[in-house]
TrEMBL record:
Pfam families: YjhX_toxin. This is UPF0386 protein ALP8811_03263. HAMAP family: UPF0386. Belongs to the UPF0386 family. NCBIfam families: PRK13687.1. It comes from the Bacteria. It comes from Aliiroseovarius pelagivivens.
Amino acid sequence: MNISRHEQRVLHELALGGSIHHERLENGKIHDVTCFTRDGFILTDCSLGIFQRLLKKRFIRSQNGAPYRVSALGIKSVRAQMNQR
């Protein structure tokens, strides 16, 4: 499956322990996302469009309203980076 460079960067940070925090409108739709690294920094590459593509491909998931984290499929799909080797 083809994954863009920005999607790959976000998945890599999530695989290292990051999370995506979301804000919902009153009708329940997500309108704003913020991606945090495991160190607490904000990843600016994560936009609402990238979030929706990762969600559609089932690379990320949330349980019981918690922040979104990488799924098992997302971990299998992420390519190895230098700090993972």
